[in-house]
């Protein structure tokens, strides 16, 4: 069970990056649709649990150290090439978004130049990725319980201090910029782009244990944890929608409203989650390009990290609103392939279990 919880914590840690924990992604994909965004969150929870279960279980069975084996197993020889290229490209893209998010926190919370946050995150990420995968998984899983406690406190505070009617909040929410045209597509697209980026690290997490059931359990628990965070952050922001318009880091603003100390703690949590995701993405990207056992692996990590740092100056909100939705549409291909693979494996299991009649 300990390994399952570690995988679950690392799953949440990899997916919950700058946009998620700050509330910016949740705002664009869920809260901007008002109360129906909560239904979108429930749908997203189901798919996070199901897809996490499949990817970690396959990673364990194939004992992989990069996403390549799992992608080709799911998608086949020809489609696998396309999906592999897309996933690899977006691993780098998400690492860039994380470094940009770090800059936004340094600027909004501490009044420091955004470049300071970008530099600190780039250096920490590069140094950590040079460790082995077991150490990376342990580090990533540490921050998840801490964030969960803070989000529960912030959501509770928001509900108890709510000063607008639901109809007024609904109208304000629907005026916010949305990443998609409707709540259902928002929920599905959110899962899609996160899985497109997270699939690589999920496969590596599963490959860290030979016990497929342990890996499967970790994927399910991680997916449910992600769903809980989506719902809590979504509700907390919705009931305070009147004070969150045009803010880079909505949950950070809510934490500061409650108390400056909580704001500082939330800043640390956000930086921790950004760090987690940046480490996961840069590790998975680097491991796909070059085997971790290769003596030049660490040098490649440094090069890729510096390139991600350079690209991070495009801007956080702009990156979340453009890179992620495009990634999400491409991620639907991967989700469809995982579902088909699941049906195929169930059918094969049913055939294997049928009794053989002799005579």
Automatic annotation (TrEMBL):
InterPro entries associated with the record: Na/Glc_symporter_sf, YkvI-like
Keyword Transmembrane helix carried by entry: yes
Superkingdom of source: Bacteria
Signal sequence coordinates: none
Keyword Hydrolase: no
Transmembrane portions of the chain: 33-53, 74-98, 110-132, 139-160, 183-206, 218-241, 261-285, 297-317, 323-343
UniProt entry keywords in alphabetical sequence: Membrane, Transmembrane, Transmembrane helix
PANTHER family tied to this protein: CONSERVED MEMBRANE PROTEIN, MEMBRANE PROTEIN
Name used for this protein in its record: Transporter
Organism: Neobacillus mesonae
